[in-house]
Amino acid sequence: MKTAACAAFLAAATGGAMTSAASAQNAEQCAVQADLVMEVVQSRGEGRSAAETVEAVQSNLEGPRAEYASVVPAIADWVYTLPEDQLGPSVGESWTEACKAR
């Protein structure tokens, strides 16, 4: 449920409304978002604080990915609420599913 809410927030923050012609673009955006989620998961797993993670992930955003800089803090807030035993590839996978469902 938190994944869907966070994905909805991210969709709204990045311009959200989608037409059927944009489904391929949506899949690409969902993949980028899931990659960001997994970068945050990896950073947390390496022992960084949420603030350090936000700074590290944002500093590595280039090109089209840079448009997601403003939502990295929300992603980090969400990831840092997850129990450690849930931090794995399934986090990115569930993000992708929730993102594509919107």
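^ that was protein a. below is b, sequence first then the tokens
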Amino acid sequence: MKQIDALIQWFAATLATSLGFLGIMLTLLLGFLVGIISRFGESWSLLFNMYLSVVAIVIAATILVAQKRDTNAIQAKLNHLILSGDSHNQLVGIEKSTVEEIEDIRAQQHADRDT
């Protein structure tokens, strides 16, 4: 599993660079060149559409996994800051709460601040 996670993180980091953008643009250009050569035939259209769909799904999934990792890391850092300071410990793990519970806590914080 660690190898798959490392591959996903590498892929996401590579896509987020200028080189990754250029790679995506080059594959699109190559696809269009093949289309020109094949006179944008029906089989080219089907294959190119399928290629674009698969690439879009893979990129979206990669971004979601990378964002989840980053979000978890940020939450761990925030939890450490909360536990090491004078903050209310009830905020640790708040990211696992429902929207209503988070709104209740925010309302309580605003009430405490205003008093």
